[in-house]
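Exercise: predict the fold of this chain.
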Amino acid sequence: MDRPRFRPQFLHPRYWALWLGLGLLWLVTLLPYRVQLGLGRLLGALMLRVAGSRRGIARRNLELCFPELSSSERARLLKENFASTGIAFFEMAMSWWWPRERLARLSHIEGLEHLQKAQADGRGVILMALHFTNLEIGAALLGQVHTIDGMYREHKNALFDFIQRRGRERHNLDATAIEREDVRAMLKVLRAGRAIWYAPDQDYGRKQSIFVPLFGIEAATVTATTKFARLGRAIVLPFTQRRLEDGSGYRLVIHPPLEDFPGESEEADCLRINQWVEAAIRECPEQYLWAHRRFKTRPEGAPRLY
């Protein structure tokens, strides 16, 4: 895709409210990092009170995935999850507007050698990630040290789409934004030996998905990871990120490549991926995006869960 460009239409009055909101958010990014974490927690507490539908989805997901927890334990986890979601708004702004040097001080990266080896070998990489609330800043931090292409879905608001893409791509000056449905472009960059951020952990519907367990629940799971790896002749490197509790930044881990992947069948591959997804979420459940209806698509005849 072409680089985002400013358009005169962005000065139209219909965008003024958004400009004002973005300007206020930019001002907040001038504050110290720990102050922004605190403001994010306050925002998350407000969202927990007013975001009724999202609160209900997150609460239901926690009930489904952590039945072994008591109701009070899940309530605490829900509160922490919304705090993490509130912080994510400021992390997004940091990743878009902070000076690169300031942002880099928050980075603690492990396993970069796996990406570097794949690049040296001319192998494409599927950087298999998850939808953690802090994914925006995690991708920015990794993009500062290694070019990462990304799957992209155009935002309905043209101005927000421009700001978002410009903020993301400033960390990867030669990165490619690939439309989520553009399979040919995806395979082309993989065969060229590039790395692509890709998250297979959400419910994208029945099409091109199969049902395999996730947290003990049959979940519609996309088979695209297998297809991309096979057709793109790429390796799969699991990638996790975590906001550190001591306020020192973020731990990004590029794990060793999945061995013998693709495997014997798409079902076996999807099960393996879901097992990894579940294990990664269990390590840091409060920072995962629980407001997504992960189990919306159900097997034939199965009852609805939301």
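Check your answer against the key: Strands lie at 107-110, 124-128, 149-152, 177-179, 195-198, 209-214, 217-222, 234-243, 250-254.
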